[in-house]
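Late entry, evening session. Most of the bench is empty. Finally got around to the prediction I had been postponing all week. Sequence below, unchanged from the version circulated by S.P.
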Amino acid sequence: MTPSKRSLYSANDLTRLINPNVVAVVGASETRGSFGERTLSNMAAFTGKVFAINPKYQNLLGRPCVPSLADLPESPDCVVLCVARPMVEGMIEAAAAVKAGGIIVYASGFAETAKPDSIEAQQRVVELARRTGVRVVGPNCVGLANTRSGAGLNFMPDYAGMGHRRGPIGIVSQSGALGYTVLQGMERGIGFSHYLAAGNSCDVDVSDFISYLAEDDDTRAIVCLLEGVKDGGRFLSAARKARDSGKALIVYKTGNSETSGKAAMSHTGTMVGSVVAYQTAFEEAGAIAVDDLETVLETASFFAKTKAPTNGRGVGILSTSGGAAVICADKAEAHGVPLPALGANTATALHTVVPDFGSVANPSDLTAEVLKTSETFGFCLDAFLNDAGFSALVMPMIFAHASSSGARAPTIVDASARTDRPLAVVWMNEWYQGPGSDFLVADPRGCMFRTADRCFATCGAWCDWH
């Protein structure tokens, strides 16, 4: 990581770009599948104004169309450039002339190619951004999304048809497609505040996006999918800003081998740097590093939905399977998460409903007997929730059926609304969309994990972070 060269952009610097009222789409088109057509389609839910820019049309997909940026009736907050590389510089000049707030550049063929003329072209874009004061995202960028305003400022296919759900997680990614992969969690009920892809980061980069989200009231946790940064000091400043704002920054750093590092260089023109240096920086700045993509969203959801632990580090495991209880205990120990003994009142209450062949302990094995009625399961759940020794409660869900997982899910969601302590379900069966899973994923308070390992790793990181 290199020393800091400029200060972070603040929310005030980027508001017109990320939260625009007026958007202009240059190179708008009716050709199905084109970047111009996709962008206009992805703006279908936008609550502000959209102008198409193309001299061939007067209207496009229900939007007014004018020949050029100079013909707009008002200054655009955000200009989306759906044009080829040779036109980019001239369009940035034109956008600056009409006092645009920010520009998104889709075009590729810049520094990521490592060709001298392409690197020079990107440097000219950098100089344009600095000279005009217009913030530029990209080039080689798929765009942005703001769920609050419905602004789908991107060319990703079928974004407009996705089950848009507003929520507390912001996504920052150098790779647009990788970030969009996480954003598709909306299809199963997870809510997001923003999706911000940086591409080649000639001007606005991941550090600036983190800085913006640190000030955003809709965001409680920030996902960062990172290949590398050109300015280590600014990244550390952004991470500390998020931490000081009480927002967890969950970082998945790719490009950790020689082969993947070369791939990152050709992808976004990013030098990935030393793995040890990044890990040290994350720890110093209070960021939470995760080792795989599958962990990112579960961890972010947990941090976004929870408050600080109030009862120490102890976690209670409420299981209806002895095998699942043992697995959870193993993972808790592996991640340094203590399992305190049940309080006397908890044990007394559970003994009234748990059969002799079960185990009234932590972890528990309440057996399938408590699943015969939702009331009995709810009674056991409340007993754990009332135990002052636990900061969080983990419940493995070992198989999915309407009469088991489907019946338990509403009880768990109801309980999560009545407590400040996290309720985490480990969905251990292979029927990922089985009965009850939709309730648990969409729960604004409770959390769901696909593996016990990821669940207890997150619980440990949560206690450490707070």
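Two things to note before I forget:
The two ends are 27 Å apart (CA to CA).
The first strand starts at residue 22 and ends at 26.
Will write this up properly tomorrow.
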